[in-house]
Amino acid sequence: MDGTLTHAIHDFEAIRIQLGLPAGKPILEALAALPEAEARPIHAQLNAIELDIAHQSSAAPGAAALLTALTAQGCQLGILTRNNAPNITATLHAAGLAHFFTADSLVSRDCAAPKPQPDGIHLLLERWGATAGTAVMVGDHLFDLDTGRNAGTATIHVDPSAAFPHQQQADLSVQTLNELLPSFS
User: Fold this and answer.
1) What is the CA radius of gyration of the chain?
2) How far apart are CA 100 and CA 93, in angstroms?
3) Given its phi and psi angles, is residue 64 left (phi above 0), alpha (psi -120 to 50 degrees) or beta?
4) pLDDT digits (tens, 9 = 90+) for 60-108
């Protein structure tokens, strides 16, 4: 979602500092390592930070056009994010993309183990009656690509900088979603 369908505006290092978490460790994993009583208020603070960011979301170049083309082709569309459920909805509404997704196609850290675990993809595939061989995981982060690989799906790496640091983990790498449009138009 963030950095794929929407412009990437999260500053994860700044969020880690604001939450008082150690540098270099992913936020959810750092929180999981804390005792529950200590982690609870930090989770609440993280949710508030993420919600503020969600309200600032805007669609990435080509997102609406690609989602329109995929929908016209009868493709199932889902979101798998390390964000929480309310932030998915806020992000999609702010970016003008909410109408492309049904509630049961939105999978957050609240209902499946966070990426890079494949549980979220498996959940979506089960809901759709689909198989991993018919699915594609599209994302901007190594966690996205690893999740797709762990679930047995094809993977597409989106990197607006065109640096493609995770190109080896992707079946295809694109700078924008517009590059995928010819395949579905």
Assistant:
1) 16
2) 10
3) alpha
4) 999 999 999 999 999 999 999 999 999 999 999 999 999 999 999 999 9
Secondary structure element (H or E) that encloses residue 174, with its range: strand 172-174
3-state secondary structure of 134: helix
Q: What is the CATH number of the domain that holds 183?
A: 3.40.50.1000
Q: Is the pTM of this model over 0.85?
A: yes
Query: SS3 for 157?
Result: strand
- What is the tally of structural domains in the chain? 1
What is the rounded CA–CA span in Å between residue 54 and residue 50? 6
Residue 78 structure tokens: 């889902």
Neighbours of 162 (CB within 10 A): 9
Q: Which domain holds residue 7?
A: 1-185
β-strand pairing of 79-80 with 106-107: parallel
